[in-house]
């Protein structure tokens, strides 16, 4: 592919060479064809440590075209180290436009959140996945977990939920909550809070999951069914801190708890910074909002 | 006696094994084993170490693939089944009690979860009912109900073995494979376990294939006995008949080797 704009000239567009991108795209297509199935791919060494989103970066690199507008989120925020460095990485190596606004982005790479603003058709959401195998902590053998996926033996997944209820009185799993995709594969949605689980299902955007260290890619095509596992008498429930955002006053967004002093003072703010800033720009105010944002945050 | 009634009531064997052979390269695991097992019947397999009894059991249970022969369960050809079908069968109609309970239990999961796993594997999705059944089964194998949330690692060897039995029987299997279920337990615990097994087998009308080298175990549990040596069945018949009037030289040796307590 041709150099696009002002990217660092030593690199191919979006860092990876064309053959590698081709290989990754092939895995992505297979993942989309078989929703929830973990497709092995030859994960490359990336210029960042494992656990920092090497899988997500490779999927993003394989999806990007020069016309794309990229957004990168880390735990909902656009301005944390991980998000900033990945965004800069693609600015340098692909020269694509970047944005913090969810609705303006065409490709969104995310770590541990789904944006609050509903995604639309044509957008691609790329997840960074640390451990793609939902059965891993119950069954350490890879040969056995593959067999269990093959034969749809997912009883063990419920054993985990059973243990939760027996120990805590409720399903205490609050992130990386397993979903069953289109009635077939059980999938780990990456460590997103279970608050976000309902957004996985029937989403008009393409959702791609990349696990670099574990060398797996899987996908949810648009409008795919994804049902969170539960018991009849302990149905799946989303959870969030029982507060409103202290900056923008949102009642229905996922909140971060921020300790503000050593005397027990704390505030709750939207974890999705773009969502929160957008609401404030439209004049909505929370409990602790002051005109100079630096004074609060 | 319920077992005898059932034996009389059904004349169709539950399991038919015909010419089963398993080789390990040039060596014989077991060769040309043929028998029928009727509903409610307990078949003991005895023999010294290396006589092929464990190989036979694992071939029967589908853990290993036999080289030759036929196994039909309830009229269905087991060896021709797809893996999905066979694994489903081994979760529902069949049960396998390992000699070492650690092989048959999930040590990191509570006792209740261990018992409930088979229920959840066949589609139970109601926590209250799963737990109710788990508690019921723990009671039946004489494990105190307040241990339901403890992990098996906190249990004694005998309790672990009883838990393994509860975990296997919870889905109401018809055929149970047992590999030295009393091995590694001291004699008083063995006696209680045998007592428990005998009660369960009678109450539930289970068909059991039990592999052991302990003649006392088969004397107590088994209706029929098969004696194996070097991979072949050298003698079979009613338990008392084989033990009291052994015909084959090896069986005579086996019987006479046991100290009379």
Largest sheet of chain B: 6 strands, mixed
The outline of chain A comes out as: globular
Low-pLDDT sequence parts of chain B: none
Please write the string of helix (H) and strand (E) elements of chain A: HEHEHEEEHHEEHEEEEEHH
Helix share bin of chain B: 40-55%
Could you tell me the radius of gyration of chain A in angstroms?
A: 20 Å
SSE class of chain A? alpha/beta
Q: Name the beta content range of chain B.
A: 15-25%
What does this structure look like?
The complex is a heterodimer of chains A (297) and B (261). With 297 residues, chain A is of the alpha/beta class. Chain A contains eight helices and twelve strands. Chain A has helices at residues 18-33, 54-63, 81-93, 142-150, 155-168, 197-200, 273-281, 293-296; strands spanning 39-40, 69-74, 97-98, 107-111, 124-128, 179-181, 185-187, 206-211, 216-220, 226-228, 255-259, 266-270. Chain A has a seven-stranded mixed beta sheet. In chain A, strands 7-6-10 form a three-stranded antiparallel beta sheet. Chain A has a two-stranded antiparallel ribbon with strand order 11-12. In chain A, β2, α3 (81-93) and β3 (97-98) form a beta-alpha-beta unit. The longest helix of chain A has 16 residues, at 18-33. Chain B contains eleven helices and ten strands. In chain B, the strands form two sheets. Chain B has a six-stranded mixed beta sheet, with helices on both faces. In chain B, α5 crosses α6 and α5 runs parallel beside α7. Classes of the chains: A alpha/beta (297), B alpha/beta (261). The A-B interface holds A 138, 151, 153, 155-156, 158-159, 162-163, 165-167, 230-234 and B 83-84, 87, 91, 106, 109-110, 112-113, 116-118, 120-122, 125-128, 130-131, 148-149.
């Amino acid at each position: 592919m041709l150099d696009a704009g002002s990217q660092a000239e030593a690199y191919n567009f979006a860092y990876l060479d064309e053959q590698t991108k081709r290989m990754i795209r092939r895995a992505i297509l297979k993942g989309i064809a078989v929703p929830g199935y973990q497709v092995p791919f030859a994960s490359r060494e990336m210029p960042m440590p494992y656990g920092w989103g090497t899988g997500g970066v490779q999927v993003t690199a394989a999806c990007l075209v020069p016309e794309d507008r990229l957004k990168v989120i880390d735990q909902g925020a656009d301005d944390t180290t991980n998000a900033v460095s990945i965004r800069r990485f693609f600015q340098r190596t692909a020269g694509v436009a970047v944005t913090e606004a969810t609705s303006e982005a065409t490709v969104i790479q995310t770590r541990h959140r789904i944006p609050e603003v509903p995604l639309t058709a044509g957008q691609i959401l790329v997840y960074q996945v640390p451990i793609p195998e939902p059965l891993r902590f119950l069954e350490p053998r890879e040969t056995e977990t593959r067999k269990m996926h093959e034969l749809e033996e997912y009883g063990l997944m419920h054993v985990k939920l059973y243990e939760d209820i027996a120990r805590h009185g409720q399903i205490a799993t609050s992130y990386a909550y397993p979903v069953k995709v289109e009635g077939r594969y059980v999938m780990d949605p990456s460590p997103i809070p279970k608050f976000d689980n309902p957004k996985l299902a029937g989403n008009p955007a393409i959702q791609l999951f990349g696990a670099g260290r574990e060398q797996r890619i899987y996908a949810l095509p648009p409008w795919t069914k994804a049902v969170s596992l539960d018991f009849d008498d302990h149905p799946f429930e989303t959870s969030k801190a029982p507060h409103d955002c202290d900056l923008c006053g949102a009642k229905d967004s996922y909140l971060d708890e921020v300790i503000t002093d050593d005397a027990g003072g704390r505030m709750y703010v939207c974890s999705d910074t773009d969502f929160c800033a957008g609401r404030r720009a439209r004049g909505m105010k929370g409990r602790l909002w002051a005109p100079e944002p630096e004074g609060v945050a | 006696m319920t077992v005898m009634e059932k034996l009389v009531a059904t004349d169709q064997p539950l399991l038919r094994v015909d010419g089963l052979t398993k080789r390990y390269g040039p060596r014989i695991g077991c060769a040309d084993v043929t028998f029928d097992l009727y509903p409610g019947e307990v078949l003991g397999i005895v023999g010294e170490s290396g006589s092929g009894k464990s190989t036979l059991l694992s071939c029967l249970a589908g853990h290993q693939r036999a080289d030759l022969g036929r196994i039909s369960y309830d009229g269905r050809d087991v060896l021709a089944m797809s893996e999905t079908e066979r694994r489903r069968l081994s979760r529902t109609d069949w049960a396998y009690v390992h000699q070492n309970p650690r092989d048959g239990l999930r040590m990191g999961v509570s006792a209740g979860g261990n018992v409930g796993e088979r229920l959840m594997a066949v589609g139970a999705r109601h926590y209250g009912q799963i737990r109710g059944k788990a508690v019921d089964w723990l009671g039946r194998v004489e494990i105190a109900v307040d241990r339901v949330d403890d992990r098996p690692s906190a249990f004694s060897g005998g309790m672990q073995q009883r838990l393994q039995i509860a975990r296997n029987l919870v889905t109401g299997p018809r055929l149970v494979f047992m590999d030295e279920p009393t091995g590694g337990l001291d004699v008083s615990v063995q006696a209680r376990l045998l007592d428990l097994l005998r009660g369960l087998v009678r109450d539930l009308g289970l068909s059991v294939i039990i592999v052991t080298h302990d003649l006392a175990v088969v004397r107590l549990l088994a209706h029929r006995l098969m004696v194996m040596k070097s991979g072949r069945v050298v003698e079979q018949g009613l338990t008392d008949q084989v033990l009291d009037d052994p015909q084959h030289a090896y069986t005579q040796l086996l019987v006479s080797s046991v100290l009379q307590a």
